[in-house]
Amino acid sequence: MTSFLSYKTYIEEGDLVIAYISRENMTPLIMDPKLTYNNKFGTFRHSDMIGKEYGTKMPSHNGRGFMYLLHPTPELWTHVVPHRTQILYIADISFITTYLDLKPGSIILESGTGSGSFSHSLARTIAPNGHLYTFEYHEERAKAAKQDFERHGLSDLITVECRDVYKEGFGITDLVHAVFLDLPAPWDAIASAKAAFKQKRIGKICCFSPCIEQVQRACASLNEHGFVEIKMFECLIRNQEVHTIPVYTVKDAVSKIKVQQDKKRKRNEEEASDSKAAKSPRIKQDPPNLYVSKTPTEAKGHTSYLTFATFLPVLDDEVEIIDKVNELD
Amino acid sequence: MSLEQSDSPVDSQNFDKIDSHNESFEQDEHTDTLRIMDNQYVFIVLPSGNIKVVKLQKDTTVSLGKFGTFHTNDIIGKPFGHSYEIYDRDKIKVIRNVAFYEVDLDDSGANNQETIDDPSKQKLSYQDIEQLKKDGMEGQDIIKKVIESHSSFDKKTEYSKAKYIKRKESKFSRVFTPVRPTLYSVWEYFFAKNPSKIRDMRIDTLSQMLTLSNARAYAKLLVVDDTQGLLITGVMERLGGYGIVLGIHDGEYHNYDIVRYMNFSKKVNDSLMVLSWQQIFKEECQAPFNYQDESKLSQKDLKFYLRKKANYEKVQEARKILWKGGFDGLLVASQYQPESILDTLVPYLAGSRPIIIYHINREVLVNTCVHMRISGKFLNPQITESWLRQYQHGHIENDMVFVCIFKISKAVMYANFG
Description:
The complex is a heterodimer of chains A (329) and B (418).
Chain A: E1 16-22, E2 25-30, E3 36-39, E4 42-45, H1 46-49, E5 57-59, E6 66-70, H2 74-80, H3 90-99, E7 107-111, H4 117-126, E8 131-136, H5 139-151, E9 158-162, H6 165-168, E10 178-181, H7 190-196, E11 203-209, H8 212-224, E12 228-246, H9 250-273, E13 289-294, E14 305-311, H10 324-328
Parallel strand pairs in A: 7-8, 7-10, 8-9, 10-11
Antiparallel strand pairs in A: 1-2, 1-6, 3-4, 5-6, 11-14, 12-13, 12-14
Helix pairs in contact in A: 2-4
Chain B: H1 12-27, E1 41-45, E2 51-55, E3 61-63, E4 69-71, E5 83-87, E6 91-95, H2 126-134, H3 139-148, H4 158-172, E7 175-179, H5 183-193, H6 203-212, E8 219-225, H7 230-239, E9 243-249, H8 266-270, E10 272-276, H9 299-324, E11 329-333, H10 338-345, E12 354-358, H11 362-375, E13 378-379, E14 383-392, E15 395-399, E16 405-406, E17 408-410
Parallel strand pairs in B: 8-9, 8-11, 9-10, 11-12
Antiparallel strand pairs in B: 1-2, 1-7, 3-4, 5-6, 5-7, 12-17, 13-17, 14-15, 14-16
Helix pairs in contact in B: 3-4
């Protein structure tokens, strides 16, 4: 049985292994000694993989190629998860996790579950004593996510519920420390999210919206419901391609021309004399190398805007409160 | 909870489950940081926007300079999130925070066409305001008075009215806000104070390092931290006291100053072990400890002796754990050459584990990347740059700094296959 919550050294029957063929090509395999996995590099028998150390470079049975057997992590799962919906990527996942102040013991509300990819990251971070309540209105998606969580040893940490939260709310009160809303109309769920917060402590909420119009409505709704510190961020990750390039100089440019002229002259001489003179061997000198990097011309652009706000705890003695707004008016 | 939709929002079985989680969390040590506690660090945000770090001690007062003074007992035990206004020199009352006041779309026709820079529009002089303060007038009332005394306040647009009020508030308001130290707020404080001390590391980058390294409960991680302990702090928090954080530090003694501001529980603090670069090498032997008969030591000497012995044994224990190997990941934010760090520490990692190296200068990592490709011990070395932009109240801050992270899984090679 695989767990996303602890590492293993050796691969066992029933484990989930992430087969790494290339950066763009990874595939999840559940170890079953009766099965074989085929790709363009050949045949890989599960029985050959069982017992190997995670990280092993595995040659195919016919020796035509190889792949690496990696230990699953929520991040690798993001690469191989069947995309039932648009999923969150590492830049957003990381920033949200820190901003929502997640750590072992945190209790979180997520809506919707989608492909369950972010749920994996969340569960990893709040284990072993936290809990994730995740809501998905699409029944098939909720079922599929639930199945993934069970297979990945996360079902004790995650409660999945199929529910239309716009109409029915979350049905949770005074419980969670953080809320993550990846919904087309988060403003319709904010009142219910507010009730879900643990009422006597500070909490954080994040709305994940691709369009600026959604952000504006969400901000207005958060403000109306008494959330404070409303802030909006956008984060991206850009890869850098690393190359080794030779460094030629002007001297090299001149000698290149000289070599060409030399060739031409020799050819003319050969034609004139019609004699087969021995070719002089060309001495090629390798120029020094330089290690460089560049941003790919096509980088992944905007994903979504992250709108954060703070839930304020209800005071023991509400009478104390002086309304700043009234005072100023 | 069942997948089927039920009529009742939460059935009884769910209530049991929810209650039990509730309870287990209440017992957790992290709960301590949710209220303002005695003997803990707190950031105090002043009206000017400056931040003061205070270690609260009960039965004392904290001075906020020209903004006044408050008694620590008045905020200890209160939840974080609210602001307080100082009145009568050292008394405080709770202020309800609001995110923003909605500014009506301006249809007044006001604009800055007639605006001239004329200080005489403000009828209150500096001396008048000082007198009001002396008379004990509260901050909010002073601001109101200042606005009333501005002869052309009404001619301002709604936007510039709001801006004017905000500017006056930062000057005359006596409202302060105790802020809970979290990874974010601690980072924010140190980044604003002296970014070079934390190697210019931004919070988005730090967050990516924690995610990519799979830092979580029950992990055993190696951390090379020359960021005053910022990176170590993040890792310790994510492990939550379950697992081991082994910090490799510069100099003879570590300087993880930032760790203490998080008010970690003993359990979390105990998960940290440290070794200097010298102590990790087997051939660099440590001076053996001179064990003595404890019964023959005086009370004073015994205390000193026991502390020295404990320190010695802690180092021995950390060395044993390092040499045993099988670590779950390596995080680096260091002044030293990454290649040399990899050569030294990678042998202690298990297979298929992430290695994350941070550097503010891309050139350093480009060399490391090539080194890793050539060595054949690493899979998929990659350099990434992270980018963060914050939009706030209509103001746009474009915050683009160059940072690099490496994401690699260590591959184990077998002789018969390799």
